[in-house]
Design brief:
The protein has 254 residues and is mostly beta strands. The chain has one domain: Immunoglobulin-like (Sandwich). 7% of the residues lie in helices and 34% in strands. The chain has 2 helices and 17 strands. Strands 5-11-10-7-8 form a 5-stranded mixed sheet, with no helix packed on it. Strands 1, 13, 16 and 17 form a 4-stranded mixed sheet that branches. A 4-stranded antiparallel sheet has the order 12-2-14-15, with no helix packed on it. The N terminus and C terminus are likely disordered. Bound molecules: copper (II) ion (CU). The site of copper (II) ion has 5 residues, from loops. Copper (II) ion binds next to loops.
């Protein structure tokens, strides 16, 4: 009887959740559009790149889910390496502490003015790391005060039901409790898409996304203004890297 009860418990556990899976498709990019200009290439071994780099990964996430979700005890890393944030995109559960180690031979100064977390790590050297705890959900845009081309993104999410898409755009979110949700696909250069979706016990729910190019103000050369030009520039000096309130991340109520 005891064995049967355990098996029953295991089965009900296994079948109490479902999965979300599918593919996030992005429009093809022209080579010139993704051209990288690395001013300090000689100092880090990074090379100029004339072909379009692979787009950074999309993040697919469930907007709201019942439950309390303790943050992980291990801290994910976002390195400064080769004059870039590596990885360029992180998705973390709210409450997660992220480490920011400097792996370059020069100094960096990571900062963000995003409403969900404002911070400025100051300048620090090779091998040093600074932690930041992200205690509010939202989109965090990261910059370096010294290297204006450096951009990174952290999506701070309310529950653990999220996934970064693979290079081919495929994603899978396992262990989602049965129910109805809003599911969002986000990618830094594209308009996010939010869909209503139902997850059933014990099965996989398919949902593909086709994202369209959106406003990508971060790609403007020498300009960190997050407002698209159509909305007017946010400061008197469009060549400056500057501060302002950034727009919330659609789908996170922030
Ligand atoms: Cu830097």
């Amino acid at each position: 009887m005891k064995v049967g009860a355990v098996l029953l418990a295991l089965c009900s556990c296994v079948w109490a959740n479902g999965a979300l899976e599918g593919k996030v498709s992005l429009p093809k990019r022209a080579a010139a559009e993704g051209k990288l200009r690395l001013r300090y290439a000689g100092q880090t071994g990074a090379k100029q790149q004339d072909t379009a780099p692979a787009p950074s990964p999309a993040v697919v996430f469930v907007e709201d889910a019942a439950g309390t979700f303790p943050p992980p005890t291990e801290s994910p890393k976002m390195e400064q390496k080769g004059l870039a944030f590596v990885p360029r995109v992180l998705a973390v559960l709210v409450g997660t502490t992220v480490d920011f180690p400097n792996q370059d031979t020069l100094q960096h100064n990571v900062f963000s003015y995003s409403p969900a977390k404002r911070f400025d790590l100051g300048r620090f050297r090779t091998g040093e790391s600074r932690p930041v705890t992200f205690d509010q959900p939202g989109l965090i845009r990261l910059y370096c005060e010294i290297h204006s081309h450096m951009k990174g993104f952290i999506l701070v999410l309310k529950n653990p039901y999220f996934a970064l898409a693979a290079e081919d755009g495929s994603y899978k979110i396992a262990g989602v409790p049965a129910g109805s949700y809003k599911l969002t696909a986000w990618q830094e250069e594209h308009e996010p898409v939010v869909v209503d979706i139902a997850v059933a016990d014990g099965g996989a729910t398919k949902q593909d996304f086709n994202l369209a190019l959106g406003t990508a103000p971060d790609l403007q050369a020498g300009h960190a203004c997050p407002k698209p030009p159509a909305q007017g520039c946010c400061c008197a000096d469009p060549a400056a890297t500057h501060t302002m309130e950034l727009e919330p991340l659609p789908g996170t109520n922030r």
